[in-house]
Specification:
single chain, 391 residues, mainly beta, four-stranded antiparallel beta sheet, 10% helix
Length: 391
């Protein structure tokens, strides 16, 4: 089953989609806020032959993960119709050029003084990271001229990546040579983040969450900052356990150059030999913390085989794992297929914490944003899949 795609013309730098709103940062420093549900309705009405497929793919991505909806979908009189619409949509070339003339599109002032290296939205607060540090502002007034006083600076080190946790009520940042930091979330203080804490004095350019724990990496050197839960005064608290280096996680670790990354229960090691996949067990003390999930031999896979020095970034979503190279991006999908997207990217983004948009991949090129929706994962056994974490 092919992914479906929606192109939005424009010169964009970054994107976020959260709580029914698409937020785009323009390369020129403007901020665009789009009522996503309304925009998708407008698009869907243009294509009556696959109107339902448009909504399911771009606006209601969680529907087919719902067991009650799945039962309806599997009705033999309904399933062929939906599958036919999804197939038609995957072959369509949908390109839109919205502007502030559209009722659902608003152009506002970008509140920060720099174009960010990364952004995040967490509990309705917008975070922007860069060489100047980590800043945040309320999402509700992010582009408003009355919002300047609401800017909060959380740290002044160079921040290369910011990731919010789904389980630990915290935000992690990769701060290059300064290491890996964490901020506890607190809704009752200004900016909603407590004072930062350095949880690993190891160079770190990339970070992500594995439930309560944090994965840090400089792309060629990866470590796992493991936390555990303890009971204190009848309350569960999160406690630092240990730092585990990749050589103690992967059986194939050796002299070969490799790249390691992961999120949630999945960790990947990519080398000239192929992909080793590890499952992380965060709950069951009777099972190993790390267990071998599978290995993929990439010999003969021209789309995957490449010089490791050409890898720029990586990521994990429910629909698969992502590797960006200098002039292409590949998705190793949860159903075993591989998708390749050619061209040099300005930025790309996934939304693993999202309830409605975790099936989306945003690809930002020089002249457009491509919203790619992966619909195959609805039909994959979530416990058995190798690429992509479980929904």
């Amino acid at each position: 089953m092919h992914p479906v795609k929606l192109k939005i013309e424009g010169t964009f730098w970054d994107s976020q989609i959260y709580s029914g709103e698409l937020i785009l940062i323009d390369i020129n420093g403007s901020l665009h806020r789009i009522n996503w549900s309304e925009a998708i309705d407008v698009i869907a009405h243009k294509f009556p032959n696959f109107e339902t497929a448009v909504r399911v793919s771009f606006s209601d991505g969680e529907l087919f993960y719902n067991p009650k909806v799945t039962k309806i979908f599997n009705d033999p009189t309904i399933k062929p119709v939906i599958l036919s619409q999804l197939d038609s949509l995957s072959k369509a070339n949908i390109t839109e050029k919205f502007s502030k003339k559209d009722s659902f599109w608003h152009e506002e002032t970008y509140p920060f003084s720099f174009l960010p290296s990364d952004t995040e939205i967490y509990y309705n607060r917008f975070y922007a990271a860069g060489e100047e540090g980590l800043y945040s502002t309320p999402k509700s007034g992010i582009g408003s001229k009355y919002n300047n006083a609401e800017l909060t600076k959380h740290i002044d080190t160079n921040v290369m990546q910011v990731k919010a946790s789904e389980n630990a009520s915290a935000v992690a940042i990769a701060a290059g040579g300064d290491g890996l930091f964490e901020f506890k979330f607190d809704r009752f203080i200004k900016g909603n983040l407590r004072k930062h804490k350095n949880i690993a004095h190891i160079p770190c350019n990339i970070c992500d969450w594995a439930f309560q724990s944090v994965i840090g990496s400089s792309l060629y050197d990866t470590f796992f900052v493991k936390f555990r839960e303890e009971k204190k005064d009848d309350k569960k608290i999160r406690v630092f356990d240990e730092i585990i280096h990749e050589k103690n996680i992967f059986s194939s670790s050796g002299s070969n150059k490799s790249i390691v990354w992961g999120a949630r229960e999945k960790l990947y090691r990519y080398s000239d030999d192929g992909f080793e996949v590890i499952d992380y067990n965060s709950r069951n003390s009777k099972k190993p913390t790390f267990s071998h999930k599978g290995f993929l031999d990439i010999s003969g896979q021209s789309s995957v085989s490449a010089d490791l020095d050409d890898v720029i970034s990586t990521g994990v979503a429910p629909f698969g794992t992502i590797i960006e190279f200098s002039e292409k991006l590949i998705v190793l999908r949860s159903d075993g297929e591989i998708n390749q997207f050619d061209g040099e990217l300005i930025h790309w983004r996934i939304f693993p914490r999202s309830e409605h948009y975790s099936n989306q991949l945003h690809l930002i090129y020089e002249d457009r944003l491509e919203v790619v929706s992966f619909i195959h994962d609805y039909f994959v056994d979530q416990e058995l899949k190798i690429f992509g974490f479980s929904r």
